[in-house]
Amino acid sequence: MSNTQNIQWFPGHMAKTKRLISEQLKIIDAVAEIVDARIPVSSRNPDLTGIISGKPQIILLNKCDMADSSATAKWIEYYKNKGIIAIPVDCKSGKGINGFKEAVKTTLADKLKVYREKGMVGKPLRVMAVGIPNVGKSSFINKIAGGSRAKVENRPGVTRGNQWFTVDKELELLDTPGVLWPKFDDVTVGEHLAFTGAVTDRIIDTELLAMRLIEILTVKYPEVLKERFKITEFCDLSYDTLCLIGKSRGMMIKGGEVDTERAANMLLEEFRNCKLGRITLERAEDYA
Ligand code: G4P
User: Fold this and answer.
1) Of all atoms in ligand 1, which is nearest to the CA of residue 64?
2) Helical residues (DSSP H) of 119-186, grouped into ranges
3) Is 130 in the pocket of ligand 1 (CB under 6 A)?
4) Among 161, 167, 164, CA closest to 146
5) Closest residue (by CA) to atom 36 of ligand 1?
6) How far is residue 23's CA from residue 10's CA, in Å, rounded to a whole number?
7) Ligand 1 pocket, 137 CB below 6 A?
8) Integer Cα distance of 86 and 64 in angstroms
9) Are 139 and 92 in contact (CB under 8 A)?
10) Are strands 57-62 and 85-88 parallel, antiparallel or unpaired?
11) Which of 48, 137, 189, 259 qualifies as a cystine partner to 131, CB 3.0-4.6 A?
């Protein structure tokens, strides 16, 4: 049970962003979508596929330092089978970023061949970076382009704003014109975004959220909970397991009861700070 469906959304902003993205499509060669490797499905906007239809795509599985590496490898395979290159990156440290340019070149190999045949040397490839808030889009752009904004050109369509970044003479990056929101129609999506801290949990009941996380972890990563909180057996009710977790940290209130709100906050914080280890909540095999 959850009340994450109470999260409010902004459809007007989304419509504007979709329009702006569509307008820019004619001047870009490919789209690089940044997703959170721990929740590669919930951290995407499913409408995007329709918006960018026809454009080659590269997926950046960001925050891979926090995700389960075997699960990330399966997501790479999953996308490979769909003809899309996905690369694991950690945009905080910059690890894996170097693979991006190669991924763009491989994805656009046919286009590069045409450029060469036509003698169009020096024409940079143009890639649009998209991603829902908090996936690390700004971190990615900072790491790859070092904040170097491209010069404004005197060409219609390319002059728009100063959202162009020069990676090098072969590659330019366009930051998304607008904010791309995720989809909250599905309760699971809202919960997964709340677990990772992508949406605020101030409007969500933290105890319910922690109980949902416990339900998922007892199935997907039982040993993690057992070891970290010295639990030998899980309870049938996730609320009771939350009590065991709080108890293991001495989070008691008078009367010998467990302070479940404190325990819930602690569990969510430990998940977000990777103290529970590298965890992937959404696995490719469940979406095959
Ligand atoms: P956005 O533009 O998509 O909204 O995301 P942004 O780059 O602002 O990143 C959101 C948060 O995620 C930031 O943390 C950022 O440091 C962190 N982050 C981005 N990429 C990675 C990654 O690959 N690994 C890890 N571990 N963290 C990443 P913050 O707490 O909001 O800020 P701060 O910690 O940088 O001060």
Assistant:
1) 23
2) 137-145
3) no
4) 167
5) 92
6) 21
7) yes
8) 12
9) yes
10) parallel
11) 137
Question: Ligand 1 pocket, 90 CB below 6 A?
Answer: yes
Helix (H) / strand (E) element for 211: namely helix 206-220
Asked if the model's pLDDT at residue 121 lies above 90, the reply is no
Which tokens hold the place of 267? 């569990």
Sequence-distant (6+) residues with CB within 8 A of 202 are: none
Q: Give 37's pLDDT tier (boundaries 50, 70, 90).
A: very high
Q: What is the mean pLDDT of the segment spanning 101-118?
A: 95
Using a 6 Å cutoff on CB, does residue 66 contact ligand 1?
Answer: yes
For residue range 123-145, what is the model confidence (pLDDT) as tens digits? 999 999 999 999 999 999 999 99
Q: How many residues does the chain have?
A: 288
Measured in Å, residue 71 CA sits from the centre of ligand 1 at 21
DSSP per-residue string spanning 17-42: HHHHHHHHGGG-SEEEEEEETTSTTT
* SS3 category, 166: strand
Residue 279, CA atoms < 13 Å, CB-side half-sphere: 25
In angstroms, rounded to a whole number, what is the distance separating the alpha carbons of residues 180 and 115?
A: 32
Per DSSP, 91 falls in state: T
Check if 136 has its Cβ closer than 6 Å to any atom of ligand 1: yes
Tokens, residue 104: 């763009």
